[in-house]
Amino acid sequence: MVNMAVQIGGLPLANPVMPASGTFGPELAQVFDLNRLGALVTKSVTPQYREGNPLPRLCETEAGVLNSIGIPGKGLDHFCVHAMAEWRRFAPPLVVSLSADSVAAFAEAAARLAGTPGVAAIEANISCPNLEEDGRAFAMHPHSAAAAIAAMRAACTLPLWAKLSPNTADIAAVARAVEEAGADAVVVANTILGLAIDIERMAPKLGAGMGGFSGPAFKPIALRLVWQCAQAVRIPVIGVGGIASAEDAVEFLMAGASAVQVGTASFVSPNAMLNVLDGLQAFCARRGFARVSDLTGLALPGRMRPAAE
Amino acid sequence: MVNMAVQIGGLPLANPVMPASGTFGPELAQVFDLNRLGALVTKSVTPQYREGNPLPRLCETEAGVLNSIGIPGKGLDHFCVHAMAEWRRFAPPLVVSLSADSVAAFAEAAARLAGTPGVAAIEANISCPNLEEDGRAFAMHPHSAAAAIAAMRAACTLPLWAKLSPNTADIAAVARAVEEAGADAVVVANTILGLAIDIERMAPKLGAGMGGFSGPAFKPIALRLVWQCAQAVRIPVIGVGGIASAEDAVEFLMAGASAVQVGTASFVSPNAMLNVLDGLQAFCARRGFARVSDLTGLALPGRMRPAAE
Amino acid sequence: MHPVVEATARVVDSAPVGRRYHRLLLDAPELSAASRPGQFFHLLCRDGAGNGPYLRRPMSIWRCGPGRQLGFLLHVKGRGTAALAALRVGERLSLLGPLGQGFRLEPGWRRILIVVRGVGLATLAPLTEAAAAQGIAVQAVLSAQAPEDLMAAEFAGDSGAAITSVFDSDGSSAVPAVEAFLRARFEGADRPDAVFTCGSNRLFLLLQRLAAEYGIPGQIALEQQMGCGLGMCFCCVRQIRAPDGTVQNLRVCAEGPVFDLQAALAW
Amino acid sequence: MHPVVEATARVVDSAPVGRRYHRLLLDAPELSAASRPGQFFHLLCRDGAGNGPYLRRPMSIWRCGPGRQLGFLLHVKGRGTAALAALRVGERLSLLGPLGQGFRLEPGWRRILIVVRGVGLATLAPLTEAAAAQGIAVQAVLSAQAPEDLMAAEFAGDSGAAITSVFDSDGSSAVPAVEAFLRARFEGADRPDAVFTCGSNRLFLLLQRLAAEYGIPGQIALEQQMGCGLGMCFCCVRQIRAPDGTVQNLRVCAEGPVFDLQAALAW
Ligand SMILES: Cc1cc2nc3c(=O)[nH]c(=O)nc-3n(C[C@H](O)[C@H](O)[C@H](O)COP(=O)(O)OP(=O)(O)OC[C@H]3O[C@@H](n4cnc5c(N)ncnc54)[C@H](O)[C@@H]3O)c2cc1C
Ligand SMILES: Cc1cc2nc3c(=O)[nH]c(=O)nc-3n(C[C@H](O)[C@H](O)[C@H](O)COP(=O)(O)OP(=O)(O)OC[C@H]3O[C@@H](n4cnc5c(N)ncnc54)[C@H](O)[C@@H]3O)c2cc1C
Ligand SMILES: Cc1cc2nc3c(=O)[nH]c(=O)nc-3n(C[C@H](O)[C@H](O)[C@H](O)COP(=O)(O)O)c2cc1C
Ligand SMILES: Cc1cc2nc3c(=O)[nH]c(=O)nc-3n(C[C@H](O)[C@H](O)[C@H](O)COP(=O)(O)O)c2cc1C
Ligand code: FES
Ligand code: FES
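Above: the input record for the complex with FE2/S2 (inorganic) cluster. Below: its predicted structure, written as tokens.
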């Protein structure tokens, strides 16, 4: 029997497979038993109501998609009262993805979530625009990323995961900055900016113009980002980007991730997470690994990364 | 009849289709008549002999490849004497891709190329490591990119194209910097850093570890970079990244490019450039565009970009 | 056990219908039995050569029921539907469903009226049979470009629905003509207990206006581009009027595709 | 007009050979006539379901010549070769070639000796026929795990080559045994004018050593992972000794795949 448990910054998970924010909801319980997952991750919650972006909000590319959904939602109050009631029906730890447009708003919302029973951890989606820095994403620069994380760290004691963005020159520097600011883990990575044009209409395919690129086509980039971060920080790295199979997940673990998230692949195959989980276990069994956590970092230069905690 | 001619910073091309550096050589004349191309672009030439990187140097991904060839070559002297003799057999303007590891080396090599008959333009591959900045690529930051271009500009009067890198936080800023430094065009973009892991060997698939990611999977990112640069500068943008069909090329032109380069697609279909060229002409004819240059920028916000020159 | 299933099924019939449509029948007895009129499946569109787009495509259930093959009727529009139409008998298709909220037939209704155009008839076809099974009489207005495009048999199956055909080619499908026809029905002895529509913005607006005027409840099936098909991605929203008059974005895949006729907005 | 062609060809035969190999024959008369032993084609590996890896795969010409079908003999190793082996008669395959430098047969040679193991025999098979056509006698040592793996017919075709088989199963393929056999040939009346090899590092090193000792010229066909197959990407290099003793990286696709036996380095 393979031991599938992992620890992410003090939070024990039954296994390392979880959904990526914004590509998952309780609706998936119509397809399989969500209690099989290592954790549940909500779509990003914002302090206030948001309408979302103009349509089309999604378009497909070669082996991937572009999205510009715009984080529609009813706001934090509604989330803490109504959505949480639904989420509490499930057993795995609930990770609430949080997005805000200022450092203070991040801190205030983190405090509120910390006071809400059933929240196991916060995933700070710092890839969103920072109104105090001209709309540049927090995660674009080490200082703004660290500011957001430090404020949340001061406001709550929940495990705090920082979700990083590929749209930066030096993701290792950002990872180090959020580690120092008190993040318990980094989630690597959010979507990378992309574009598709409808040549008949002569306009971008997405209503909002550019969008976030994800899916299998994005995998080599996300894997590289994980590899860079795993060599830069000591906190666990959670790998996300293009994972559609157990083999993909093994690549991320060997590149230094301690757990993985599956996003876009669930749109094509809603059972993708289960297949990843079963396949991971089979891989470990075949290759004689007693614990899935033994895979973490195996392909790093000098196998520098110890198994997560 | 569609007028296929374009102007790139004063250099007239019979059509906007050319190869991407490092994916092309006179060997392709075994497959089709290279005189049909708008320009020829050499693999990057370096001042000195280079051995190249350890093998494997190439691996495939979902709809793309990773490469870490390492710019092997016999150096500039050999290039100017022997390789040029072969290149002069062809009619299209010859663009020499130049790579160097210091500002001074770039300038010196540019002067040497300017004195070599048959060189129509220099494409400065500033995505390579800058030894004076700790190995960070010149194109990663506006100041180092501008320094290299300014030095080349001072050293020669040849048309000078700056090839930008996706591995930067703000490509528009880099594009503006090289425009100010005297570049006649920007080539957008070089490969983006990626990684693939062989899970059986538990090591990166490429001998060098990380590599440059290219091919159809990379297209949405390259197209977004072109779109951002076209809105940032007035010099022409040459689009490159994942172009495999005429429709892809039309997307790049509508995103603001004045010409396109085809790289990885030629490995799968050596006739890819001809197919792009014929298909571009057919698209213009079907949609009633008299000149291919009329497509440039059609999908930009407010159709802000005039047709190239 | 789980109400939505990701499965593969064998194609048992794949053939063109009329000038523009294509029929696909699948051997999927359990999914067919579990399906309700108005629901849809999310289909992975790979042709026999493995070519097709990355995302699934939503397709209304056209034929379903215990002991029946599961059927779809599609209009070839782009890459996805072209790949579906290229499937051959014996090949396999991955499908996810049944999904969404279907049509509601209330006990006590004796008569319904359906107005459809284009491929909307695929969506409403199974309702005719469900109504017939509950003893509800169905009257339908089928609008098409020309008689060759009608597909009345594809619509009504064995339901015995009374069909009135209107065409662009002879002007009978013009809004005033259809309006006159509908008013006569709504004012007559055979006034329907509910109306249903799908497939045409023009006919939807007409039906919405008249149904409001005559106080007849109605339902409409809407379409929207989809990602997950399950309610997770929020890319398939449409503006829907709430009872309090405010407008909100609802997901066609989860709250729909069937909405209250008066709540829907024109598109 | 252009020596290298990107074309598609119909599969006319696709069948397993022995325990591990697969045979593909294509209807490509012009390409077949233009091909020379030792050259290769770069194949797009898509199975009938359109699945396969992004890049092409290099494959030696196993059968070629005017009026003959173009043939490949492949060992299923990974995704690419699996897709090729899944092709059925009537399906089409995209191929690029003929590529690379083939074997050289010098006028005046009367006898050559070939040492092969594994799928290397596909590469050397057409040389037996080319030699026979020039009146050059061929002697060959075929090394295999066991008699079932031999494929002597696949190797020699109608060439009349004299074959000596050696096996791991009975120890006859051990290096000392093969060395004794070769020394006997090199010292005897039937001393070959040239030697050729492909497919085994161990046999290559043996042949290189003995050929140098006896002063017999030789050629070897090398393999290396490829991108473009045309000489443009420099991913397929191997270290090759230059006449002045220095070692340089040459492209297997362009300067090779056939190299001078003494210039090649072990891998
Ligand atoms: C609930 C529902 C039921 C449907 N039932 C049927 C049916 O029974 N028969 C039928 O022929 N068609 C039906 N459609 C429409 C069908 O889904 C589209 O025609 C199809 O997705 C087009 O895909 P394509 O790749 O061929 O076209 P493309 O135009 O290449 O598609 C591009 C993108 O736009 C989306 N798209 C394009 N048109 C539509 C549309 N009308 N609705 C939703 N998304 C669209 C595609 O899904 C894809 O994401 C239904 C749509 C919905 C939402
Ligand atoms: C000039 C030449 C001629 C060849 N002739 C034959 C032949 O006649 N019959 C035959 O069975 N095989 C031959 N090979 C080897 C054949 O190309 C590989 O077995 C094949 O590419 C493996 O692809 P795959 O996807 O099945 O395996 P994978 O292992 O999945 O391939 C992964 C990558 O490694 C490369 N690769 C793996 N093994 C080799 C290899 N031995 N040589 C080159 N690249 C490799 C693949 O091309 C691919 O890029 C030849 C190779 C070369 C270079
Ligand atoms: C439709 C869609 C919506 C997303 N919404 C969010 C979000 O709300 N918050 C967030 O942090 N990431 C969001 N993401 C990014 C994913 O969580 C994930 O980081 C990214 O898609 C890469 O993983 P994948 O390739 O497995 O999808 C979204 C992605 C998609 C495709
Ligand atoms: C094998 C390979 C070698 C390359 N070598 C160079 C090079 O020497 N100089 C350079 O500027 N770009 C080089 N590139 C990058 C290409 O020119 C191009 O910018 C990139 O591949 C994106 O285009 P594509 O997706 O069409 O290949 C190379 C790319 C590949 C795949
Ligand atoms: S398609 Fe994803 S929410 Fe409707
Ligand atoms: S395969 Fe590209 S140079 Fe040999």
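Notes for the reader.
Chain A has eight helices and 16 strands.
Chain A has a mean pLDDT of 95.
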